[in-house]
Design a protein that fits this description.
Elements lengths: L3 E3 L7 H11 L4 E3 H10 L10 H12 L45 E6 L5 E6 L21 E4 L3 E7 L1 H4 L4 H10 L4 H15 L5 E7 L4 E6 L3 E6 L8 E6 L10
Parallel strand pairs: 1-2
Antiparallel strand pairs: 3-4, 5-6, 6-7, 7-8, 9-10
Helix pairs in contact: 5-6
Protein backbone atom coordinates (compact mmCIF):
# COMPACT_ATOMS: atom_id res chain seq x y z
CA UNK A 1 0.00 0.00 0.00
CA UNK A 2 1.00 3.63 -0.47
CA UNK A 3 0.25 6.88 1.33
CA UNK A 4 1.56 10.28 0.28
CA UNK A 5 0.90 13.99 0.64
CA UNK A 6 2.00 16.77 -1.70
CA UNK A 7 2.13 20.53 -1.06
CA UNK A 8 1.40 20.08 2.63
CA UNK A 9 1.39 23.53 4.26
CA UNK A 10 2.77 24.40 7.71
CA UNK A 11 2.79 20.79 8.95
CA UNK A 12 6.21 19.46 9.88
CA UNK A 13 5.34 15.77 10.27
CA UNK A 14 4.81 15.11 6.56
CA UNK A 15 5.77 11.43 6.67
CA UNK A 16 3.40 10.79 9.57
CA UNK A 17 0.55 12.43 7.65
CA UNK A 18 1.42 10.25 4.65
CA UNK A 19 1.21 7.21 6.93
CA UNK A 20 -2.27 8.31 8.00
CA UNK A 21 -3.29 8.42 4.33
CA UNK A 22 -2.03 4.83 3.98
CA UNK A 23 -3.69 3.55 7.14
CA UNK A 24 -6.99 5.42 7.12
CA UNK A 25 -7.97 5.95 3.48
CA UNK A 26 -8.28 3.98 0.26
CA UNK A 27 -6.40 6.74 -1.60
CA UNK A 28 -2.72 6.89 -2.43
CA UNK A 29 -2.04 10.65 -2.58
CA UNK A 30 -3.64 13.79 -1.12
CA UNK A 31 -2.64 17.22 -2.43
CA UNK A 32 -2.56 20.86 -1.35
CA UNK A 33 -4.95 22.49 1.10
CA UNK A 34 -7.05 19.38 1.39
CA UNK A 35 -3.95 17.44 2.43
CA UNK A 36 -3.38 20.06 5.12
CA UNK A 37 -7.02 19.80 6.24
CA UNK A 38 -6.61 16.03 6.42
CA UNK A 39 -3.55 16.43 8.63
CA UNK A 40 -5.40 18.71 11.03
CA UNK A 41 -8.22 16.15 11.24
CA UNK A 42 -5.66 13.76 12.75
CA UNK A 43 -4.40 16.31 15.23
CA UNK A 44 -1.31 17.61 13.45
CA UNK A 45 -0.71 21.25 14.29
CA UNK A 46 0.14 24.12 11.95
CA UNK A 47 3.35 25.87 12.88
CA UNK A 48 5.77 28.34 11.28
CA UNK A 49 8.14 26.68 8.85
CA UNK A 50 10.38 29.62 7.95
CA UNK A 51 13.72 30.06 9.69
CA UNK A 52 16.07 33.03 9.83
CA UNK A 53 18.31 31.20 7.37
CA UNK A 54 15.55 30.44 4.86
CA UNK A 55 14.22 34.00 5.00
CA UNK A 56 17.73 35.40 4.48
CA UNK A 57 18.31 33.11 1.49
CA UNK A 58 14.98 34.13 -0.04
CA UNK A 59 15.75 37.83 0.41
CA UNK A 60 19.19 37.37 -1.21
CA UNK A 61 17.58 35.52 -4.11
CA UNK A 62 15.08 38.34 -4.62
CA UNK A 63 17.89 40.90 -4.55
CA UNK A 64 19.66 38.82 -7.21
CA UNK A 65 16.65 39.32 -9.51
CA UNK A 66 15.25 35.88 -8.68
CA UNK A 67 18.18 34.06 -10.25
CA UNK A 68 18.46 31.18 -10.80
CA UNK A 69 14.89 30.07 -11.35
CA UNK A 70 13.06 27.23 -13.07
CA UNK A 71 11.23 29.13 -15.80
CA UNK A 72 12.02 28.63 -19.49
CA UNK A 73 10.58 30.08 -22.66
CA UNK A 74 9.46 33.19 -20.76
CA UNK A 75 10.33 36.80 -21.55
CA UNK A 76 13.16 38.12 -19.32
CA UNK A 77 12.89 35.21 -16.87
CA UNK A 78 16.70 35.03 -16.74
CA UNK A 79 17.05 38.76 -16.12
CA UNK A 80 14.50 39.76 -13.50
CA UNK A 81 11.79 38.60 -11.12
CA UNK A 82 8.31 37.80 -12.41
CA UNK A 83 5.57 37.88 -13.33
CA UNK A 84 6.60 36.76 -16.81
CA UNK A 85 4.96 36.33 -20.16
CA UNK A 86 5.59 33.45 -22.59
CA UNK A 87 8.05 34.07 -25.40
CA UNK A 88 6.37 33.94 -28.79
CA UNK A 89 7.20 30.71 -30.64
CA UNK A 90 9.34 29.38 -27.79
CA UNK A 91 10.78 25.97 -28.68
CA UNK A 92 10.83 22.90 -26.46
CA UNK A 93 14.42 21.71 -26.24
CA UNK A 94 15.46 19.22 -23.56
CA UNK A 95 19.02 19.07 -24.92
CA UNK A 96 19.78 22.38 -23.19
CA UNK A 97 18.58 21.32 -19.76
CA UNK A 98 20.61 23.11 -17.10
CA UNK A 99 20.46 21.69 -13.60
CA UNK A 100 20.32 24.09 -10.66
CA UNK A 101 20.17 21.16 -8.24
CA UNK A 102 22.87 20.82 -5.60
CA UNK A 103 23.09 19.74 -1.98
CA UNK A 104 22.10 23.31 -1.09
CA UNK A 105 18.92 23.38 -3.19
CA UNK A 106 16.95 20.45 -1.80
CA UNK A 107 16.64 18.40 1.36
CA UNK A 108 15.26 15.00 0.43
CA UNK A 109 15.52 12.22 2.99
CA UNK A 110 14.84 8.68 1.76
CA UNK A 111 14.87 5.57 3.97
CA UNK A 112 14.52 1.84 3.35
CA UNK A 113 13.65 -0.42 6.27
CA UNK A 114 13.75 -4.23 6.50
CA UNK A 115 12.50 -5.92 9.67
CA UNK A 116 13.29 -9.33 11.18
CA UNK A 117 10.26 -10.84 9.46
CA UNK A 118 11.45 -9.76 6.02
CA UNK A 119 8.92 -6.95 5.63
CA UNK A 120 10.14 -3.83 3.85
CA UNK A 121 8.96 -0.24 3.81
CA UNK A 122 10.15 2.99 2.24
CA UNK A 123 9.70 6.53 3.50
CA UNK A 124 10.64 9.89 2.01
CA UNK A 125 10.31 13.51 3.00
CA UNK A 126 11.33 16.68 1.20
CA UNK A 127 10.72 20.40 1.14
CA UNK A 128 11.27 20.34 -2.62
CA UNK A 129 13.59 22.54 -4.61
CA UNK A 130 14.60 25.91 -3.24
CA UNK A 131 12.87 28.76 -5.12
CA UNK A 132 10.68 26.35 -7.06
CA UNK A 133 7.68 27.59 -9.04
CA UNK A 134 4.59 27.51 -6.77
CA UNK A 135 2.57 24.38 -7.39
CA UNK A 136 5.55 22.22 -8.28
CA UNK A 137 5.50 18.64 -7.00
CA UNK A 138 8.64 16.68 -6.26
CA UNK A 139 9.26 13.06 -7.18
CA UNK A 140 9.46 12.01 -3.53
CA UNK A 141 5.71 11.54 -3.06
CA UNK A 142 5.13 9.85 -6.41
CA UNK A 143 5.12 6.03 -6.06
CA UNK A 144 7.84 4.47 -8.20
CA UNK A 145 9.72 7.74 -8.62
CA UNK A 146 11.14 8.78 -5.26
CA UNK A 147 10.63 5.38 -3.69
CA UNK A 148 9.22 1.92 -4.27
CA UNK A 149 9.06 -1.41 -2.43
CA UNK A 150 7.92 -4.89 -3.34
CA UNK A 151 8.27 -7.32 -0.45
CA UNK A 152 8.91 -10.16 -2.88
CA UNK A 153 12.00 -8.39 -4.24
CA UNK A 154 13.27 -5.34 -2.36
CA UNK A 155 13.09 -1.57 -2.47
CA UNK A 156 14.75 1.57 -3.75
CA UNK A 157 14.83 5.31 -3.05
CA UNK A 158 16.01 8.16 -5.26
CA UNK A 159 17.29 11.68 -4.67
CA UNK A 160 18.53 14.52 -6.86
CA UNK A 161 17.02 16.36 -9.80
CA UNK A 162 13.48 15.17 -9.21
CA UNK A 163 11.94 16.92 -12.19
CA UNK A 164 14.15 14.85 -14.46
CA UNK A 165 14.17 11.65 -12.42
CA UNK A 166 10.39 11.35 -12.12
CA UNK A 167 10.21 10.97 -15.91
CA UNK A 168 11.96 7.59 -15.58
CA UNK A 169 10.36 6.10 -12.41
CA UNK A 170 13.85 5.07 -11.24
CA UNK A 171 12.80 3.48 -7.95
CA UNK A 172 10.28 1.22 -9.68
CA UNK A 173 12.73 0.40 -12.45
CA UNK A 174 15.43 -0.52 -9.95
CA UNK A 175 13.14 -2.94 -8.13
CA UNK A 176 12.03 -4.51 -11.41
CA UNK A 177 15.65 -4.97 -12.45
CA UNK A 178 16.29 -6.73 -9.15
CA UNK A 179 13.27 -8.91 -9.85
CA UNK A 180 14.94 -9.83 -13.12
CA UNK A 181 18.11 -10.97 -11.38
CA UNK A 182 20.28 -7.85 -10.99
CA UNK A 183 21.84 -7.19 -7.61
CA UNK A 184 20.94 -3.84 -5.97
CA UNK A 185 24.10 -2.04 -7.09
CA UNK A 186 23.80 -3.14 -10.73
CA UNK A 187 20.09 -2.33 -10.77
CA UNK A 188 20.73 1.16 -9.40
CA UNK A 189 23.52 1.72 -11.93
CA UNK A 190 21.24 0.75 -14.83
CA UNK A 191 18.51 3.11 -13.64
CA UNK A 192 20.95 6.01 -13.27
CA UNK A 193 22.54 5.34 -16.66
CA UNK A 194 19.14 5.35 -18.34
CA UNK A 195 18.48 8.86 -17.05
CA UNK A 196 21.99 10.11 -17.84
CA UNK A 197 21.70 8.88 -21.43
CA UNK A 198 18.83 11.31 -22.04
CA UNK A 199 19.89 14.05 -19.61
CA UNK A 200 23.68 13.92 -19.15
CA UNK A 201 23.69 17.06 -16.99
CA UNK A 202 21.24 15.71 -14.42
CA UNK A 203 22.49 14.94 -10.91
CA UNK A 204 21.09 12.31 -8.62
CA UNK A 205 21.40 8.93 -6.97
CA UNK A 206 19.50 5.71 -6.35
CA UNK A 207 19.94 3.51 -3.28
CA UNK A 208 18.54 -0.03 -3.30
CA UNK A 209 18.25 -3.04 -1.02
CA UNK A 210 17.03 -6.57 -1.63
CA UNK A 211 14.66 -8.51 0.62
CA UNK A 212 17.74 -10.45 1.79
CA UNK A 213 19.44 -7.29 3.08
CA UNK A 214 21.93 -6.86 0.24
CA UNK A 215 22.31 -3.18 -0.63
CA UNK A 216 23.95 -0.93 -3.20
CA UNK A 217 23.74 2.48 -4.83
CA UNK A 218 24.65 4.46 -7.93
CA UNK A 219 24.98 8.17 -8.64
CA UNK A 220 25.68 10.67 -11.40
CA UNK A 221 27.27 14.14 -11.49
CA UNK A 222 28.11 14.12 -7.80
CA UNK A 223 31.77 14.06 -6.76
CA UNK A 224 31.02 11.35 -4.20
CA UNK A 225 27.73 10.14 -2.81
CA UNK A 226 27.25 9.05 0.80
CA UNK A 227 24.49 6.98 2.36
CA UNK A 228 24.04 5.37 5.76
CA UNK A 229 23.51 1.71 6.73
CA UNK A 230 22.36 0.28 10.05
CA UNK A 231 22.09 -3.52 10.33
CA UNK A 232 22.82 -6.49 12.60
CA UNK A 233 26.52 -6.31 11.75
CA UNK A 234 27.09 -3.75 14.47
CA UNK A 235 25.41 -1.31 16.87
CA UNK A 236 26.48 1.79 14.98
CA UNK A 237 25.34 3.40 11.76
CA UNK A 238 27.93 3.06 9.00
CA UNK A 239 28.55 5.66 6.32
CA UNK A 240 29.08 4.26 2.82
CA UNK A 241 30.79 6.40 0.18
CA UNK A 242 30.69 5.58 -3.54
CA UNK A 243 32.16 7.26 -6.64
CA UNK A 244 29.77 8.58 -9.26
CA UNK A 245 29.60 8.65 -13.02
CA UNK A 246 29.76 12.15 -14.42
CA UNK A 247 29.51 14.43 -17.42
CA UNK A 248 31.47 17.67 -17.70
CA UNK A 249 29.10 19.22 -15.15
CA UNK A 250 29.78 17.94 -11.62
CA UNK A 251 27.89 19.00 -8.51
CA UNK A 252 28.96 18.72 -4.87
CA UNK A 253 26.47 16.99 -2.57
Amino acid sequence: DTGAVIQLKSIREASQVARAVLQHTEHSVLVGQNATNFAKLFGFQSQPMASNTSVSRWESWKQNKCQPNYWKGMVDSKKRCGPYKPQPNAELNSEHHVSHVSRHSHDTIGMLALDAKGRMAVGLSTNGLTFKIPGRSSDSALPGCGGYVDNEVGGAVATGDGDIMMRFSPAFLTVELMRGGSNPEKAAQTSVRRIAKKYPLFSGAVVAASKDGVYGAACHNIVVFKYSIRDMAGPRTRLVTIPCSNSTHVLHF
